[in-house]
Amino acid sequence: MQYLEFWRLALFVGLLSLFMILEWAWPRHARRFPRRQRWPSNLGLIVLNSLTIKLIFPLGTLALGSLAEQQHWGVLNQLALPSWLSIAICLLLFDLAIYWQHRLFHAIPLLWRVHRVHHVDPDYDVSLGLRFHPIEIALSMAIKLALIVILGPPLLAIFLFEVILNGMAMFNHSNLNLPQRWDARLRHALVTPDMHRVHHSQLYHEHNSNYGFNLSCWDRLFRSYRAQPELGHQGINFGLANWPLAKDNRQLPGLLSLPFRSPSQVNKSSTNKA
User: Fold this and answer.
1) Membrane-crossing residues (predicted)?
2) How confident is the model at residue 113, as a pLDDT?
3) Which parts of the chain have pLDDT scores under 50?
């Protein structure tokens, strides 16, 4: 199991570096703020979230999956299915669960207060795929652990899902100018940067669409798919319209306290610092 943890970390670092290079070489749109004003906080959340998970949950996804396998927990551990079929079922169900998790974080006001940390960023690049409040990361981890106990997935399925989850989150949040013909073909199956970019629009009906992170079929199936932004990809405004471009929204302390503040409080704070 330790070698799986090593490869998960290695692939995460490798993919993050790759998408940083690709979006630097072929950017989709101009940055509103320089990297130095956003990346320290966005990337700092990775470290904080990792520490939070280790403190709250004694077992990670792979460790719990190994225990579930030993104890024969979960539906799939009671069935004599071929390994490839168990893995395929798990990847589909995990993907569907994350789609609905994301949609509920938009629909339920208390969850939205936490999730809006991800949405107030006025720029769009690979670092945004890692910008989540520790509370959201903890809740997401609890959901994944519950699914592991219920399903009893093979360890390889858990490993593949974690790699896909991180890799696709970075891919579809990257400021990558993917050729339109590639985008059109890829989005038949996968969520592309152009498809997910619509989800970060300030327009209400646009940021309440395109919830998928990996397979694009869920948005089509559950009627939350929107092909293109109304203002086009060069005219799209990122962030939330009722939140100011406050410095607090680009610094780690401000991001951590954001779920507990209102837009008016941020406005006041920004004015006082001006």
Assistant:
1) 6-26, 46-67, 79-100, 145-171
2) 94
3) 267-274
Q: What is the DSSP letter of 232?
A: -
Asked, for residue 269, whether it belongs to a domain, the answer is: no
Question: Residue 244's pLDDT is what?
Answer: 63
The region that residue 74 occupies, defined by phi over 0 for left and psi between -120 and 50 for alpha, beta otherwise, is left
Kindly compute the dihedral angle of the four CA atoms of residues 228, 230, 234, 237, in this order, to the nearest 10 degrees. Answer: -110
Query: Residue 183 is inside which H or E element, if any?
Result: helix 180-186
- Amino acid identity for residue 103 in this structure: R
Angle between helix 134-151 and helix 61-71 axes, rounded to 10 deg: 20
Give pLDDT tens digits for 108-157. 999 999 999 999 998 999 999 999 999 999 999 999 999 999 999 999 99
User: What domain range is 239 assigned to?
Assistant: 33-263
Joined together, the tokens standing for residue 104 give: 């509920």
Say what the pTM is: 0.91
Domain count, the chain: 1
Task: Pick the closest to residue 213 from 108, 112, 109, 91 (CA basis).
Answer: 91
Tell whether 5 is covered by a domain.
no
How many other CB atoms sit within 10 Å of the CB of residue 100?
14
Distance of CA 42 to the CA centre of its chain: 12
d(CA 128, CA 135): 17
Residue 62 lies in a domain: yes
